[in-house]
Amino acid sequence: MAKLGTNLDKAAELLRNDELVAIPTxxxxxxxxxxxxxxxxxxxxxxxxxxxxxPLILHIASVNQLESLVTKIPxxxxxxxxxxxxxxxxxxxxxxxxxxxIATAGLNTVAVRIPSHEMTLKLLSMLDFPLAAPSANLxxxxxxxxxxxxxxxxGKRIKYILDGGQCSKGIESTIIGFKDEIPIILRHGALSIDxxxxxxxxxxxxxxxNSILAPGMAPKHYSPKTRLIASDNIKRTITGLNxxxxxxxxxxxxxxxxxxxxxxxxxxxxxGDLSEAAFNLYDKLFLLDKMNFDCIxxxxxxxxxxGISINDRLRRASN
Length: 319
Ligand code: TXA
Ligand code: MG
What we know:
By secondary structure, this protein is of the alpha/beta class. The protein has two domains: 3-205, DHBP synthase (Alpha-Beta Complex), CATH 3.90.870.10; 227-317, Rossmann fold (3-Layer(aba) Sandwich). The chain has ten helices and 15 strands. The protein has helices at 8-16, 38-48, 63-67, 75-84, 118-126, 147-154, 193-200, 234-239, 274-289, 307-317, and strands spanning 3-5, 21-23, 30-34, 57-59, 89-94, 109-113, 131-132, 160-162, 174-179, 182-187, 204-205, 227-231, 246-250, 264-267, 295-299. The strands form two sheets. Strands 1-8-2-3-7-4-6-5-9-10-11 form an eleven-stranded mixed β-sheet, with helices on both faces. Strands 12-15-13-14 form a four-stranded parallel β-sheet. Helix 1 (8-16) crosses helix 5. The protein is globular, with a radius of gyration of 19 Å. The two termini are 32 Å apart. The site of threonylcarbamoyladenylate has 30 residues, from strand 5, strand 6, strand 9 and strand 10.
């Protein structure tokens, strides 16, 4: 059973010995191992039950390290890295030969980021290899934003969880790839598209550019065990669920006003702040999942800023 702790020397030692360690980041916890060793990376896939076609993100401590992993860095990528690293932004760039094919699921590109978490940055600086780290959940389940969430899902399968408190962003990094140097958003995440536009002007989304590969973005993902229905009209949705023990999850308590009093209610924030909603989202889903409702009915939040990323997760968690 995994131990929780804050011992960086112990974490580094385990990682140098090709063991896996769960690490905190500002987005979600990652399940980390030596990103340059195929055997260690295959353990990551095993522990998560992750399909082999879903590539991993390499975590590094400095931009210098990036140059040793990729063959080319487009101008736009440099601008983004300068502005947002360390931070919740992942760049997908052409990989070089030191990156094993298993890390990238056979693609000729690799996903890289510098996470913004003091403990993990320190750990990375103690190692002479990047850390491959997908979110530290079982495949398709809710991503962990606390060490306890990690312990609950995969505690039996790993030795150590570095406890860095609750992740400050609470939702995964935004992923950007490049097609002929043109930036394309592959996954909406904790860095809002508006902030990226402030640096680059226009960015494309996958809908504008279907040809780019974005594996692992399965329509069903991030799901609690409890059935979840995302809705933009909760009143109408719950009339179809007569007889079920449901809980309604909204952005803020005000949105409950029109619901009958006997329905269980939860909210992501007290005041409707979308960053707070992202911070609380997975934690709330973990909590509600433990309460054995028949169904969670989650209301979509306004489709602006980080709300776009929250709605993306709700859509994928929904069935
Ligand atoms: O915030 C995050 O990004 C967290 C923390 C731990 O850093 N990590 C994370 O990893 O969310 P994961 O494995 O759950 O999601 C990684 C996703 C893949 O599902 C895939 O969509 C994308 O990154 N990806 C990785 N390599 C890629 C590549 N070469 N081309 C396109 N997409 C890639
Ligand atoms: Mg994940």
